[in-house]
Amino acid sequence: MDHDLPQQPGSSSSSGSSESSNGQRRIVKMFNVSEAQVLLDSIPTDYGPVEELFSGCHSPGQYFTTFFDYSIVDDLIFQTTLYITQLERRVSTVTRQDILGFIGINIIMGYHVLPSYTHYWCEDF
Fold first, then answer.
1. Can you tell me the distance from the alpha carbon of 64 to that of 56, in angstroms, rounded to the nearest whole number?
2. 106 lies in a domain?
3. CA nearest 22: which of 7, 6, 1?
4. Which residue segment(s) compose the domain that 110 sits in?
5. What pLDDT shows up at residue 28?
6. Cα distance between residue 101 and residue 94, in whole Å
7. Is residue 114 part of a domain?
8. How far from the centroid of its chain's Cα atoms is residue 43's Cα?
9. What are phi and psi of 45, to 5 degrees?
């Protein structure tokens, strides 16, 4: 029984086939630079002046709050407090600073890898 996937039109030069461990053939789609360029060229770039969006931003925090405003932070505070209450734990006050600090640490953890999670919270560095 042949379980080949149907091949897309024009993909013969950018595909290869291989046989899996159970004897079934599968088609592997390879990256094709010319197809990617056509895709990139088809993306419109006239979505308005981006400079106006950031005209009042003078710090990284201001750039961040352009996309992640306080209404989102306030919703996170509400949901965090609700979650703590549902766990029947003592409710401590969660502030905007707490949420923004937590998000900031998570962003840093995404691009600056340390040996242990405890290093992100350590004050000795």
1. 12
2. yes
3. 1
4. 58-121
5. 65
6. 11
7. yes
8. 21
9. -115, 5
